[in-house]
Request: fold
Amino acid sequence: MIRSIFAASVLGLTLAVASVPAGAQTPSAPPPAYGGPITAADASRVALAAIEQAKKDGLAMSVAIVDPSGNLIYFQRMDDCQFGSGPVAIEKARSAALFKRPTQAFADGVAHGATYLLGLTGAVPVPGGIPLYIDGKIVGAIGSSGGTGQQDAGISQAGASSMHP
Reply:
């Protein structure tokens, strides 16, 4: 089960972000621990769930899955997806894995005036990167690109949700 309880404090603001598994984190708890890396089979299943959702939504997307250290495990660019979306999807996934939070947290922080976040190497302040969890531990992350930020986040969420059918 996934619930929206992840919080990040930015300039005194608490920002709630979706996609943290139930029980994995509370606002006062530290970020979840890293687990072993996602398997190639699980990475493929997650990416394919995201791509199926993109097809249903009529979107052409790039989808990337990385391990906890941000190394690429799986990548797919759908036909007719703009070429620039490939590197963006990979960087969104890498950011979510390395910083243990959805990239939406950085987007929200910047929107609330925390421009120093733009100086964090590897932090992508654009929605669409979401950590992936097994047993409450981060095993990787998914990144999607090709639509609006909210569309990208929705496609990544569809993939992430397939981790816990």
